[in-house]
Amino acid sequence: MQVKTQPDDLQNYLTDASNMPGGHAEKLFVPETAEEIASILREANDDGTAVTISGARTGTVGGAIPFGGVVISLEKLNHLSIDKNTKVATVGSGVILADLQKAVEAEGLFYPPDPTEWSCQIGGTVATNASGARSFKYGATRRYVRRLQVVMADGEIVQIERNCGSPRVSKGETRTYDVSLSLTRGLLQSGLPPLTYERPDVRKNVSGYYNEEPLDLIDLFIGSEGTLGVITEVELDLLPKPEGFFSGVVFFWDANELLGFVDEVRQRSFAARRNLVATAPGSDKTDSVAIDIDASLIEYFDGNALRFISEKFPETPGDAAGAIFFEQETTAETEDALFEQWNELLERHNADIDRSWFTTTEPDREKMRAFRHALPVSVNERVVRNRQRKIGTDMAVPDENFPSFLRYYKQTLDASGLDYVIFGHIGDCHLHANMLPKDDAEAEKARHIYGRCVAQAIMLGGTVSAEHGVGKLKRKYLAAMMGERYLNEMAELKKSFDPNVILGRGNMFEEKYLG
């Protein structure tokens, strides 16, 4: 195990993609085993020393930035194995997502979660319940986690399996768990403090501890942002690799036609999945499933985003109102019928089919994905040139309120005079409005607009963070969304697992709730 104390050795571990300033720590540990982490935590727990967990530091909310205490980097926990027969990957927390994806694909399998930054580590994706574009069909990381190895604050190493410790009581009551873990056994069997809040009716939400029924013990740790324990190993479910894909980047000249197209794709995709479940083996219905549109992703670019990205992709129409990037899985038997269905739908919504891009080949599909990923990269390059920080939203709202929320974005940003682009996961009613301030005065204006967008999302029944997490930067927005009562419930739950409050201090809520 490496132990570093020199400022130059610590420097890279004092910041993340949020560029939040002021990070500092006394010591950096780079362990290679869970047992070494357990030893570090036992000492820190006895001394009351703050511990910050560091992954690849690709997060945008300051969760990996220490403000005192010690840092534990998980980069050396990089073991990886895949059982092709059971379709399970066993992965150290320090494994890079791109490396996992390559290994899985080499076995003819598929791991759906695809956050924009593929250089992230698997432990970080679990700690934040990362999602990405394909979550429209496949959901977030949570759906694929079957087992966690976790080192608790007191140094105990535990294995938590899916369906281990299901709740025995209704929401709002003290939860008891029947588990064969030594982990604070008395606490789990006598009951954890209740979480009584209702989560927003949105498909993507990483704001606060998970609290839906049925709740599994493992779900408390997924998305907990390093505040309940240190995730050191993960078992992940894998899927068979799809036979093929039909992909398109489609341009529209009328924003209302674009939204009508998205709404129909969304509804038909949901219906196709319901039909698939209804006709699955063991169901009462035995009819064959009709071939219909079922998108795996639906991504949006507004007109500003298209003009912005045309600097790197000059073939992009610069005068379009917006564009949609979609994909659907195909087989040799379904390909022709699906082409016809998509073409009919695009014609009905007056898409510019002649200038749009379509493919069924892997190289061209990767070019389309590069088109999608080039936008946030270009945005980051612009704000660096301006010597400013990007200010980007991460809210999601219920389906029925999405059109009004998008109108609010556009009207507010157009009136502000700020440069901006809007893009993201429109299938899940979750877009990123990125404001690009040129100077300090514009940056201050952008921060005020961000706060107004948060308030609007909350008023519409949405969430303040759909995929990036809360970390340290969004604590006040989580407080606005949940209120003191529910933050106190979360704090009591954290203290049940971490009585001396050493893990992830400052993440999710201020320390005043943990006193």
Explain what you see:
This protein is an alpha+beta fold and 515 residues long. It has two domains: 80-240, Uridine Diphospho-n-acetylenolpyruvylglucosamine Reductase, domain 3, CATH 3.30.465.10; 244-459, 3-Layer(aba) Sandwich (Vanillyl-alcohol Oxidase, Chain A, domain 3), CATH 3.40.462.10. The protein is built from 14 helices and 18 strands. A hairpin with a 4-residue loop joins β17 (420-425) and β18 (430-435). α12 (402-416) runs antiparallel to α13 (440-459). It starts with a strand and ends in an 18-residue tail after the last helix. Residues 166-186 have low confidence and may be disordered.
| Low-confidence segments | 166-186
Count of discrete alpha- or pi-helical segments spanning 4 or more residues? 14
Total strand segments = 18
Tell me the name of the CATH homologous superfamily of the largest domain.
FAD-linked oxidases, C-terminal domain
Question: What Rg do the Cα atoms give?
Answer: 23 Å
SS content category: alpha+beta
